[in-house]
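Give me the 3D structure for Fatty-acid amide hydrolase 1.
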Amino acid sequence: LLLRWRRRKGLWRKVKEARQRHDRGLEQMEKVALGFRKQHPSVDTVSILSLPLPELSKKLHDGSLPPEQVFYAYVGKALQVTRETNCITDYLWESETQIQQAARPEQPGLLYGVPVSIKDSINCQGYDSTVGFVSNLNNPAAEDSVLVQVLKRQGAVPFVKTNVPQSLISYDCENLIFGQTFSPLLYTRTPGGSSGGEGALIGAGGSILGFGTDLGGSLRLPAAFCGICALKPTGNRLSKKGIISGIAGQKSVVAAVGPMAKDVESLALSMRALLCEDMFSLDSTVPPLPFKEEVYSSTRPLRIGYYETDFFTMPSPAMRRAVRETKQLLEDAGHTLVPFKVDNINYFIFNLCMRGLFADGGASFLKKFKGELEEKSMRLFLWLSRTPDWLKTLLSWITKPFMPRLSGVIRSMRVNTVEDLWSLHHEIEESRNKFITQWKKLNLDVMLCPVLGPALPIGYPRKLSVAVSYTILYNCLDFPAGVVPVTTVTDEDEEELKGYKGHFQDWWDWTLAKGFRGSVGLPVAVQCVALPWQEELCLRLMREVERL
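Predicted structure for Fatty-acid amide hydrolase 1 (548 residues):
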């Protein structure tokens, strides 16, 4: 007990030091932003912050806007946003040097002078990638991740790192080091996760372009909750070298790194910049596929599959309306909309996704928490990871008649043998092939479907892990998927919510209905999907949805 007390005391000391470092970073942000404002009182930061990325980039390239003006405008705004939402974990001090020493090159990169924000789990040289674990403090990255290296070579200026939930296996945004991040739209709501710090910062205008990762919706859910756009590419379209994973070595449910921004054109610009020779030479495992401009810029009518529900998570009235209204607008614009049905979603969620993530019974997940301070949102998964298989089997059998989904979660967290794991990989392959066959039989280009929304109250994601069904499906299939905000919750949606029962009418459905309440005015997005390696086509649909 004494040893345990001493260890915990040591961990809290590390937390205290990390918070002091964090506070010093914010003090420096305030100092440099105020200093620049005093020296250059005529600089109109409001107009700089109002420029969309393509326009800002154009002005930086033609020299009509100096990079330092843009940089200090965003440092000041980011500071204001983090004081309201607690979204920044680190200020990258050397970004100031990068700006001061940056002589305009003869051929500036596509992101020349653009300040960018980076998720905590993406390595930046000299800074911790904590993923919310105290044990990862004081262990700075030896070098930049490939993503950050390419961004810098394209002229971008990474200036802050942003908050995440402990372990990344959550769509809330809280850990014991940096605390809870709040939605910039309503402080009682979560910004989503695990790229929640990015969602809050970009949603409130403190960053014009950010990068996060996505294992079950970790880019798309914060974007949907905060009213911005995000793209989850095919797993290996962008390099993941130097990025910390939630469950290292897990290959069944495919993680991806991708951009977040206020509009689709900004996402496209970032993909153009990243899909370059530097990316392909720094990480030879990334296929050398440059951005296909002709696909993104095409105006030919699309054949679009769509569905309003996956028959696992009943959509909120606003989610359903978002898909219906978007479908109608797309049809009116000359596109062909084809109904699509997701078959056997229970099998996808439990037998493939949950079983894939926790194929070792949760041993790897549990190992990360050894000697660690535990955040409360992780308790269900930690408890199940510590539970022996015989008890999981018994509990699964007991809960099946009255809570079949809980039974499925418990059953899917049993230990798999090597033979079981090979069989699982084969099942995922077969399921992907069947899905693609169904897609091609309907001759589809792209898909339109819901994404969870509006933003749930803080603390609700830990009670509703199953509600990620709309997003995690496309990690399992490894399809590119993005989200675009299209509407806000209305009084009529709120009224209709009174009749919300859910597909299973279990405790999770009841809790989700409660979480959706009181959301009038909050944004709701739709999800756009394409086949593997067709990010440009996915962005094309997203741009069309945004335009309409």
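The mean pLDDT is 96. Let me know if you want a second pass.
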